[in-house]
Specification:
Layout: H1 2-15, H2 23-40, H3 51-98, H4 111-134, H5 136-142, H6 146-153, H7 156-162
Length: about 170
């Protein structure tokens, strides 16, 4: 049941992303995928068909992490541009109010090329992630094989293996 709940949470988080994306929704889906992956990793040895979904979850985490990094860099760029605008305004006011002795604002940084390059990167990463994971077909591919994995994880044989062969031993919590 725990794996099913994590799969459902991941699919819902992916569906919430929509066409515009957004750092918070992508990050939320990435965290849901990470939790599911960590939940499944201990079973990669005894349950062979866990490996495929794990590889897909790892690739999802990588790509969504790259996208989140681009969003974070965009926020940092916005803060730097705001700080520079404040610095320049203060320098201009100091020049006007303080007379000729105050330093001028200096040359303006060129934010536009950096911002445009960042936007191209974000758009490219988002399109790739949308095609592979965010759209309905992508979500289905990402969680493909997990129903079989859930059935295998609840099988008495696996439970017996996990408990060292003792049928009535407590099952380790994951």
């Amino acid at each position: 049941r725990l794996v099913e709940d994590h799969v459902t949470a991941l699919v819902e988080a992916l569906a919430a992303i929509g066409a515009a994306g957004g750092h918070e929704t992508v990050h939320r889906a990435r965290i849901r995928g990470k939790r599911l992956r960590y939940l499944l990793e201990p079973f990669a040895g005894p349950v062979v068909f866990v490996r495929g979904p794990l590889r897909r979850l790892e690739r999802f985490q990588d790509l969504s992490g790259e996208l989140c990094d681009r969003y974070t860099f965009g926020r940092a760029l916005e803060r730097a541009a705001e700080a520079e605008a404040v610095r320049r305004a203060r320098a201009t006011l100091a020049t006007i109010l303080g007379g000729a002795a105050a330093p001028g604002p200096g040359p303006a940084p060129r934010w536009e090329p950096l911002a445009r390059a960042l936007q191209r990167e974000r758009t490219s990463r988002f399109r790739a992630a949308d095609k592979r994971y965010f759209c309905a077909a992508g979500r289905n591919r990402l969680v493909a094989g997990l129903p079989r994995t859930v059935r295998a994880l609840s099988s008495p044989r696996l439970i017996q293996t996990a408990t060292g062969g003792t049928p009535n031993a407590p099952v380790p919590r994951v």
